[in-house]
Amino acid sequence: MRKILLPILALAGLGYFFYSSLMGAVNNCEKLEAATLEAITAASAGCSSDQDCTLLPLTCPYDCLTPMMRSAKPQVVAALDEYMASCMAMCPDCPKERSAKAVCINSRCAVTR
Predict the structure, then answer these.
(1) Dihedral angle sign, alpha carbons of residues 43, 48, 51, 55
(2) Domain spans of the chain, in order of start
(3) Contact 43, 78 (CB under 8 A)
(4) Shortest CA distance to 113 belongs to which of 61, 62, 63?
(5) Is the pLDDT of residue 12 over 90?
(6) pTM for this prediction
(7) Helices (H), the chain
(8) DSSP state for residue 104 in the 8-state scheme
């Protein structure tokens, strides 16, 4: 009985280790994604003219064309790089939109098509 029980307990412990490691990685990705979304949201506020805004072509889990302040683009790209280095997202390619442009509406960058 002991010969059978010991390997089963070892496998159960190993399974728990992998499960808890995986759940830790998932929680970390959720935190990184939330931080990235917060950076993107903050980056769209504060414009005073259309020239303050630019579009960042992204893929999911974000919008394909994300409007933001030109000055905030480096911080958003850094947050995205950190997220993408640690987390995986399966995303379709975004369609090419030649007519889309960034504009400032009510002090927030937006996309017009």
Answers:
(1) positive
(2) 2-112
(3) no
(4) 63
(5) no
(6) 0.67
(7) 2-43, 73-86
(8) E
